Give the backbone structure.
Amino acid sequence: MNKTQAWIARENQYCAQNYYPIEVVLAKGKDVWLWDIKGKRYLDMMSAYSAVSFGHSNVRLIKVLKEQSETLCVTSRAFHVNMLAPFLEKLCTLSGMDMALPMNTGVEAVETAIKAARRWGYEKKGIPDNQAQIIVAKNNFHGRTLSVISFSSEAAYKAHFGPLTPGFVEIPFGDVAALKKAITPKTCAFLVEPIQGEAGIQIPPPGWLRACQECCNDNNVLFILDEVQSGLGRTGKMFAFEHEAVKPDGLILGKALGGGILPVSVFLARKEVMEGFTPGSHGSTFGGNPLAARIGLEVLTMLETEDYIARSRILGEELLQALQALKQDCIVEVRGKGLWVGVEIDTQKVSARKVCQALMHQGVLSKEAHESVIRFSPPFTIDSQTLQWAVAQFSKALDIACKHS
Ligand SMILES: Cc1ncc(COP(=O)(O)O)c(C=O)c1O
């Protein structure tokens, strides 16, 4: 057994097998680069599922982390803290929302959105108690808590975890007629990702989001966007909803909000929606803690004042074009927005997992989304030359993986 295998075996002995990681053991990270325990360097084309948008151990964020961690870290919301208002105020200003409820992980913010939507449904819309319905899209991914997997289309996410939470109705992604048809007087919200990330970077038809917003407005249904992955510059705009100039009633953010350092998430909404929360109706010991708020504020300031979003847009276009120019016949489609690109491959020829494994040997890290898509979502700090190098390695990895299939 070599050193890598020994570390993997040890981890497997003690860690639940709820993931299927690529066979590399990482020990260090700096900006777009990661190093394994043997000192081999890899390019990070995955950014922890888009959480590391500013590169590993970003200097500006680490400075702030150090300062705030020496000042005040965690108090719980049993008390007011001076870091929370500036953070949430900036979030509201940037997103056009009235109020925010801070959480930690993405799925907690999704749960928060579901609770807010149901309360609004009962208290403002007048839906009879315990009968509220939320419409969701097929192949969605919103996280892994019991309520959230209850409306997943993936049988494997739900098997033997029942009884599941009722009150969710599924429609096809990208189909506004289906949304119209699914709405009933008991519908309180439509919850959707503007671009489906874990489903393999699925981009809906142009105009769909706008049509959904209009449909929701016309029917007194909340339009809630899960931008945990698509938000904060990933698609080349601050929020993916800006591509269609829509205005959601509720917005969920996470991942990059923690600067690749801490879990920081938030549910934002109109005042009328957030008013449903009263003392004791929801909470989190760590949500909105001063350290998380300080990092979150710095992340937002960096996105607002530096060129990260423009880089995502321009370099994303370059990445898309370079991948689309590849001639390998196992590639079915290349699609993306900003520095968030998926390459769909023909699984009859090779599996995405095999390609990612071969890519790792070429010094580039990424991970499959489902069986057929290889995702590329590097930190926004990557440069053009490194991107082109990554595409060349991907091309070689495809050849190697196809040859051995
Ligand atoms: C759109 C979306 N929502 C929610 C989540 C869940 O976030 P977390 O893993 O931080 O709970 C994810 C994670 O990939 C996601 O992509």
Remarks:
- The pocket of pyridoxal-5'-phosphate is lined by residues 49, 105-107, 110, 141-143, 193, 197-198, 226, 228-229, 254 (CB under 6 Å).
- The chain has a mean pLDDT of 97.
